[in-house]
Design goal:
Blueprint: E1 5-8, E2 28-33, H1 36-40, H2 46-65, E3 69-73, H3 75-78, H4 84-95, E4 99-103, H5 108-115, E5 124-128, H6 152-162, E6 167-168, E7 171-172, H7 189-192, E8 203-204, H8 206-214, E9 226-227, H9 233-251, H10 274-278, H11 284-297, H12 304-328, H13 356-368, H14 373-386, H15 391-401, H16 407-418, H17 435-441, H18 462-473, H19 475-479, H20 485-493, H21 496-511
Parallel strand pairs: 1-2, 1-4, 2-3, 4-5
Antiparallel strand pairs: 6-7, 8-9
């Protein structure tokens, strides 16, 4: 059947509020497709793929119910096409289209693919905005420069002023721009008893699982016959409301805390809205406004440190990493400032390790396709930094295992924040830590086979010698960084014989990473 205009909707462009859908036009056909290339460009968590497929199918049904023409292709129908350009070319020919329009992809990989579509006679190609992010794409160069450190705090303050969020005139509400010092609490026994049960959904996944297996898509993680995450705007709004009511009142306090002592240890006070946001089922400003409304109506139950900590993640960090990503691609993905080259240990795929912190974070990731930001940065991320793991392998793991991982947000968090592989474009120092940090912010060490207090010996926490070995191995690069002056001085003070013992201990560990 003929259609003058073909419009592509990618799996992370499920924005029901987009201007495209404000009127019905029989000359327009929308294509939404489960694609082999998207399911297998890295090895994804099985729950990640089923969640995307379920959300895409629901979105297609919603558009059809409103009268839009939709071409929805499952893996069965799309398997005949070698890639996305091949699919588009075939559909344009089949429907005798005059134009093809795509929303600007968030991933450089897809933007390059769509921006270089082979010309077809009489076909006009347009690029549209996703109408999602707060900072317009063409304004990114005003705030970000190639291969240049950009301080997130400065960008965050600009965004607060630009959108008048938590502002009293030109001053921040509460007299400070952030309340980090208030947001580093750990769980006491009484706190553990009142952690809210997470809101999960029971969206059927069987059909998607069958197709994934039939087409031999390689995956990681543990499968489920249900998709626990929101797959449409209505469910996403339910999760947002739940967060504002039950989790936001303590979000800031415990946003960096970790525990093994709760059945809800995987969710805690985190919103888990990132999948809905990154697929554009929710708009970032409506998330911010919902949280602000809850804060203002709470009569003091939600304090400024709770709301500010949450808004900083959406208004500040999320917009910031997008800018850093786009200004530095494609070279961003090649950065390896610390020359890390070891292989990722096998326990990242099965959680079979005696290190309780890693066992907990990785088990949770394999089970839920989710871990909160401190687990990603200071548990799995810190370990891969200290162990000198190849950034390409670390990127692939993070990109595949987490339900919310799309390269624009994953790569800056992994390669910059966790691995310091860019040499300081984002972080002003490596986020390296010994076992002391893990012990301070979690209860993982209490049930660990290793002793967090020991640096040397058979029972010593591996993070301790690996930390000091990291300082030693990267001494020249770190010595000029004023934020690393304290650990550098402490390393310098150690007796030469102690340094030799630490190096030897670390060397044994690094040669046997799979057995930790």
């Amino acid at each position: 059947m003929q259609a003058k205009h073909l419009r592509l909707i990618l799996g992370d462009q499920l924005n029901a509020m987009h201007s495209w859908f404000q009127q019905i036009d029989d000359d327009v056909i929308y294509v939404i497709a489960e694609l082999h290339q998207e399911a297998s460009y890295t090895k994804h968590h099985i729950k990640k793929i089923t969640a995307f497929f379920a959300a895409m199918a629901d979105f297609a049904q919603m558009l059809e119910s409103k009268g839009h023409r939709v071409c929805y292709l499952t893996l069965d129908e799309s398997s005949q096409y070698q890639d996305l350009p091949h699919l588009i070319k075939s559909l344009v020919t089949h429907h005798q289209c005059e134009s093809f329009t795509f929303q600007r992809p968030d991933e450089y990989r897809l933007w390059s693919q769509l921006g270089n579509l082979p010309a077809q006679d009489g076909l006009t190609v347009y690029e549209a905005d996703t109408e999602h992010f707060l900072l317009p794409f063409d304004q990114l160069p005003q705030h970000f420069q190639v291969a240049t450190h950009v301080r997130m705090e400065n960008f965050y303050r600009f965004m607060r002023k630009e959108f008048s969020i938590l502002m009293e005139g030109s001053k921040p509400v509460g007299g400070a721009w952030n309340f980090d010092s208030n947001n580093r609490q750990t769980f006491k026994k009484a706190d553990l008893k009142v952690i809210p049960k997470p809101l999960i959904f029971t969206n059927p996944a069987e059909a998607y699982l069958q197709r994934i297996k039939h087409h031999k898509i390689k995956t990681i993680g543990y499968e489920s016959t249900n998709v626990d995450y929101p797959i449409n705007r209505q469910q996403s709004l339910q999760l947002l409301d739940y967060f504002c009511q039950y989790q936001l009142p303590n979000f800031g306090n415990f946003q960096d805390a970790m525990t093994d002592a709760s059945p809800y240890a995987w969710s805690l006070y985190h919103s888990r809205l990132s999948f809905s946001l990154n697929c554009k089922m929710l708009n970032p400003m409506e998330v911010i406004q919902s949280a602000l409304t809850a804060y203002q109506a709470s009569e003091g139950k939600i304090t400024i440190s709770q709301i500010e900590g949450f808004i900083r993640q959406i208004l500040g960090w999320r917009e910031y990493v997008r800018g850093m990503y786009w200004m530095n691609m494609p070279n961003y993905a090649q950065q390896n400032a610390l020359s890390a080259n070891r292989d990722l240990p096998t326990f990242f795929w099965n959680a079979d390790t005696k290190m309780q912190c890693l066992k907990s974070a990785i088990s949770q990731s394999l089970e839920h396709a989710y871990a909160h930001h401190i687990q990603r940065l200071m548990i799995t991320g810190n370990f891969t930094l200290l162990a000198g793991i190849d950034p390409n392998q670390v990127d692939d793991w993070y990109l595949g295992i987490y339900i919310d991982a799309i390269e624009w947000v994953e790569l800056p968090n992994t390669r910059s924040m966790a691995l310091f592989a860019d040499g300081g474009w984002i972080a002003t120092k490596p986020y390296a830590a010994s076992g002391n940090y893990v012990n301070k912010m979690s209860d993982y060490c209490k049930s660990c086979r290793y002793n967090v207090k020991q640096k040397l010996g058979e029972d010593a926490c591996p993070l301790n010698s690996l930390y000091w070995n990291f300082i030693d191995q990267n001494y020249e690069q770190l010595a000029s960084n004023h934020r690393m002056s304290f650990p550098i001085r402490n390393w310098d003070k150690l007796d030469p014989s102690q340094k030799i013992e630490i190096r030897e201990k670390a060397s044994v560990l690094l040669e046997n990473l799979d057995n930790l």
